[in-house]
Amino acid sequence: MGRRKAFLTINGKATGQTRAEFEYPLPLKDANQILEHLCIKPLITKTRHRVQAHGLTWEIDEFSGENSPLIVAELETKSDQAPKQKPPWLGEEVSQDPRYLNMNLVAHPYSRWEKEILQSATAFHLKGGESVRKGLKRIVTEQLTAAIDHLSHSEAVLEEPIHEVRKSVKRLRAVLRLMRPVLGSAYREENAALQEVGRTLSPVRDAHALIETFDELTEKYRKEVGDHHKSRLRQTLLAHRQERENGFDRDQQIPQLVEKLRQICLRAESWPYGKVDIRLLADGVATTLERGSKSYQHAYAASLPENFHDWRKRAKDLRYQLTLLEKLWPEVFAGFLDAAKKLEELLGMDHNLVMLRDTILKRADVVDSDEEIRVLLLLIDTYQRELRIKAEGLGNRIYNEKPKQWIRRVERSWEAWKKEQRTKKFMEKHPPLLEVFKE
Predict the structure, then answer these.
(1) What are the pLDDT digits (tens) for 165-181?
(2) How many Cα atoms within 13 Å fall on the side-chain side of residue 344?
(3) DSSP-based three-state secondary structure for 332
(4) DSSP code of 231?
(5) 323 and 124 in contact (C-beta within 8 Å)?
(6) Do 198 and 313 have their domain in common?
(7) Which residue among 22, 264, 346, 372 is least packed, with the fewest CB closer than 10 Å?
(8) Quick check: 84 and 18 in contact, CB under 8 A?
(9) Is 155 in the same domain as 256?
(10) Are residues 264 and 176 in the same domain?
């Protein structure tokens, strides 16, 4: 075994695929002291191998510990140009992926990525003890990471990863709207980028939604229409879904989407989180409620599909924003959150019924008879009336309070929650002493 050595390495900020790097030798004793007392845990440990390929020297880092079984290959060159020939064992390009930075591998070790993806799907909320600034940055990073990984590890079935990615995109756009006052012109750029990702995935998801809506409608009114699982219309919808899936070029579109999300992730690192506080979030929720109230009124003033669809988008924003804040006062926010979720579900089904109606009218040639068309359209109208009556009642409750009341509620809940967290932390450090007396 050779003599053990220690070095201090300083890496500059990456520009393209290059960055400045400085390395200095350290006494081994000092290095051990730094590792033990100054470095954030878990420590990044890896074995470096140097491999010759096509006249170039590749440095292969084989990670151990918390970051096993990650293996990263790095090529040190004097220019920003990629090599003309790449070895066949080289994998995915990650130079522009911030998740692979050492600072991120400490906070989010590679071995925990899969678990964190699952947790991020349900942990879309501020955590006890973290500031609003840190909380939002964590949430944005988690949602982007989850979206990237769902696409990168998507199997043969597209529906589930597409559904999960679209959920992450919707959550991110809800956060963006809260941050809009401090993002300035960047808001439009980032919102448009996320919209583009969502639009690319929508055709496949919409085709699945049509089948689900048709099945729910015919099951709900089974006595009126009988068994429609073998109807020509349903078979056409199944064929349409297959066409959409076949038309989605996985080999081309998934890498493109992953790259777009990675670019958003890189830009998100420098979003002005430092300007975000609880008042900004409270104002954002109040604005969402105010916009939702107007959409609610417009929907029932003129019952146009586009009005109800616009209201649905506002209800979706409210749902995700309340999810973000739920932990501040679960007993209160959970009730409003349940109402917002139910409202979004009602309006979502209303929108799906609109799409089903349009499909039936456009593809009347595949419906068995004019009578079947008439019955299906009548049932769609009946179901929509039921949905809109329920939605009106929920809207009346949700938008009953003035926006200023919500601003006060959010701010006071935040202050009370912070106090609870400080008390909890103190009690963990200083548990009460129990004395037992014997007579």
Answers:
(1) 999 999 999 999 999 99
(2) 16
(3) helix
(4) -
(5) yes
(6) no
(7) 22
(8) no
(9) yes
(10) yes
